[in-house]
Design brief:
Blueprint: E1 12-18, E2 30-37, H1 40-53, E3 63-65, E4 72-73, E5 77-85, E6 90-95, E7 99-105, H2 110-120, E8 144-145, E9 148-149, E10 154-161, E11 166-171, H3 183-186, E12 191-201, H4 214-224, H5 232-246, E13 255-258, E14 264-265, H6 267-276, E15 282-284, E16 290-292, H7 294-300, E17 307-308, E18 311-313, E19 320-323, H8 331-349, E20 358-359
Parallel strand pairs: 2-5, 3-5, 4-20
Antiparallel strand pairs: 1-2, 6-7, 7-12, 8-9, 10-11, 10-12, 13-19, 14-16, 15-16, 17-18, 18-19
Helix pairs in contact: 4-5
Bound molecules: uridine-diphosphate-2(N-acetylglucosaminyl) butyric acid.
């Protein structure tokens, strides 16, 4: 890191940036300053600028790390610096007949990584196809879908600790992963992830297709290609089909994926609900509690396609909130609709829904 006091001038810095195109919910948001980061050196230089422009030395610099913008709810005005990690590149570090270790830079598109890996014969990510966003954000909420989570393939994360300006290589275990949670999520805007190290396997017979209708749809894909058993490419294509059918593409209808977490409740409460609603969908957890399908609760509360305009749940998947007024709606509209949905569900089932995407305050 340079010790000079001069602010490096080769950084990609812009002022008063409209971020509505950089968050998949398409909320209006003007940021004071945005720094696009293309290399790890850019990260160090940006950190230096932030330290220099932080008036009170004891205070943490006010910064927002914005990746693909697919899991954040931005305020109308952001009086802080936004850092966008856009580093590119995929490198093979180690390969055996059974597996391959690849290092992927934070700015790579997640879905493109999934597709290229499967096409290369590197497996393990196929269930995570079509998840929006960039690779650098994937460890933050330990992205997961159809029975697989990022932690199943992750070896380590390289991240810059912004408050101290030190690089760390954090092992999968030390990332403290849980359902939609990690060390990085619990310490927001503290870590800037620059690359992730993944171990992908090469056994085309090893697939995870026991979730919902994945098996059945994957079987169709396998048959179309005269394959006797389901292969990872079939699982990937099945998941692409299923997601396309149920989840709106943010380009057509802005959204940030699942808006509510699936609530985890005590078994006794689940049994009580089951007595009144025999169709309730719940998954037993290893600790004896039950994870309830929030989409089912919202639909049964009569809110599929409902809410308070312009923020409405999706007609095919009640767990997803969609923005029908792109570039016009704001956080306040989200709040109104979220409160209405949560209250209606609580009044009917006595279950509290928690928001999944990260709410960003104006001054952090
Ligand atoms: N359901 C309804 N009505 C709805 C939606 C769902 O009755 O409107 C029922 C379904 O019929 C099913 C159950 O709820 O029986 C669960 O639905 P689904 O399998 O679609 O999964 P989910 O729990 O709604 C979670 C993740 C998704 C992930 C899918 C598949 C969370 C909060 N969401 O959704 O993640 O793709 O499982 O693994 O855990 C995301 O984070 O953006 C996301 C899409």
């Amino acid at each position: 890191m340079t010790t000079s006091n001069a602010i490096p001038s080769n950084l990609d810095i812009q002022s008063n940036v409209d971020l509505s195109a950089y968050n998949t919910m398409s909320l209006v948001c003007i940021a004071d300053r945005v720094i696009d980061l293309h290399t790890e050196q850019d990260i160090e230089q940006a950190s230096q600028i932030l330290q220099q422009t932080t008036t009170d030395n004891s205070k943490k610099p006010s910064v927002l790390v914005l990746s693909g913008g697919s899991n954040v709810l931005l305020p109308k005005q952001l009086n802080i610096t936004v850092l966008r990690p856009l580093l590119k590149g995929i490198t093979v570090l180690n390969e055996t007949t059974d597996y391959i270790d690849i290092e992927v830079m934070a700015g790579e598109n997640w879905h493109e990584l999934v597709v290229s890996s499967v096409n290369n014969g590197w497996f393990g990510l196929e269930n995570l196809a079509l998840i929006p966003g960039l690779v650098g954000a994937s460890p933050v909420q330990n992205i997961g879908a159809y029975g697989v989570q990022l932690e199943d393939s992750l070896l380590s994360v390289k991240a810059y600790h912004l408050p101290t300006g030190v690089w760390h290589t954090i092992s999968c275990e030390d990332c403290q992963f849980a359902y939609r949670d990690s060390l990085f999520k619990r310490q927001p805007n503290t870590w800037l992830i620059s690359r992730v190290l993944l171990r992908l396997h090469k056994d085309p017979q090893r697939v995870s297709a026991n979730y919902g209708d994945v098996q059945q749809v994957a079987q169709k894909h396998a048959q179309q290609h005269q394959r006797i058993s389901i292969q990872p490419v079939d699982v990937m294509n099945a998941i692409i089909d299923i997601r396309k059918q149920k989840l709106p593409d943010p380009k057509d209808l802005p959204n940030c994926g699942s808006f509510f977490q699936n609530p985890i409740i005590a078994q006794a409460q689940f049994k009580q609900l089951q007595a009144d609603y025999p169709d309730i969908v719940g998954y037993p957890m290893s600790d004896g509690q039950v994870k309830v399908a929030a989409g089912w609760l919202i639909e049964q509360a009569g809110l599929k396609g409902g809410g308070i305009a312009p923020i409405l749940t999706h007609k095919n998947q009640a767990l997803v909130l969609t923005n029908h007024a792109p570039k016009q709606a704001s956080q306040a509209d989200i709040q109104t609709s979220q409160q209405y949905i949560s209250q209606t569900v609580f009044d009917k089932f006595g279950v509290l829904l928690q928001r999944e995407p990260v709410w960003i305050d104006e001054n952090l």
